[in-house]
Write a structure and sequence with these properties.
By secondary structure, the chain is mostly helical. The chain has one domain. It is 76% helix and 4% strand. The protein contains 15 helices and 3 strands. The protein has a 3-stranded antiparallel β-sheet, with no helix packed on it. Strand 1 and strand 2 form a beta hairpin. Helix 6 runs antiparallel to helix 7 and helix 12 runs antiparallel to helix 14. The C terminus is likely disordered.
Amino acid sequence: MRPILYGILASFFFSSTFVLNQAMKLSDGNWMYTASLRFIFMIPFLLAIVAFRGNLKVLLTDMKKRLFTWFGWSFIGFGVMYAPVCFAAEYEPGWLIAGTWQITIIAGSLLAPLFYKVVTTPNGPVRIRESIHWKGLGVSLVILFGVGVMQLSQAERFVARDLLFGVLPVMIAAFAYPLGNRKMMEVCEGRLDAYQRVLGMTLASLPLWIGMSIYAYVQDGLPSSGQTGQSVIVAVSSGVIATVLFFKATDMAKGSSQKLAAVEATQSGEVVFAATGEVLLLPVPVPAAMSWIGMFLVIAGMTLHSLFSGSPRNARGVGSKKIAK
């Protein structure tokens, strides 16, 4: 139950990303600044936390040993995840991006065969390939249907280009996030805690964010004070608090693709949180009735997925495939 609670809390803080990204778009902020400043501003906070806990040297040593691995999976897990989401904010409202983002739940299930777990047997430890949990994936299709309903509700307001640029980048990001997160969990092998892992991935993805900032500066000059301040809020709320909560939840659920999928399913709460935040804080229209129906379907799918994945019978029915040690 605790991983699910942490996941829901993370979804609340994650929703600030979608709301404030829209605010920066409405104030004509460059989307590349929106993406890069969040991670650049995360570094001082995370450095202070990890150093205070006395874990900074251990992290830096681990990163030095596996430098290219850290760079590669951090680029995917943070870079390929967040830059497309910020780009999509130029074309769709935040609550709709938050809804489309829930495809990450299905992505997490489909990616299961790329990962392994170690099981102790009478003959010693054996690596077992995870398998796709087809029944749980079927429940997740309710979420996908809800996303489709939300997109359909906006079809009359947006031209085809807006729908394409608002949906496709988010779909790419939805696969990149669980892939990068889970691969870094494998790399860390329990040696590093959630704070260290978030800081390490932020530092490893820093070349991308610096490059994007330079390009944004060439295009538009320095970011406005408003965009800078909002980026700090996103960095603390979404980048630090939400990410650490979510990574903590996935750490608690590691070793089971079903439990990991259930934790990832809690992120559906971002849809309602983002929609409520935008309506209350920004000059945007209230989502139509059809949009709320789509949101309800997403939340219902999240709930069913969590309940189904958490049942003892389904937790045992992994059906994984043994491979050589």
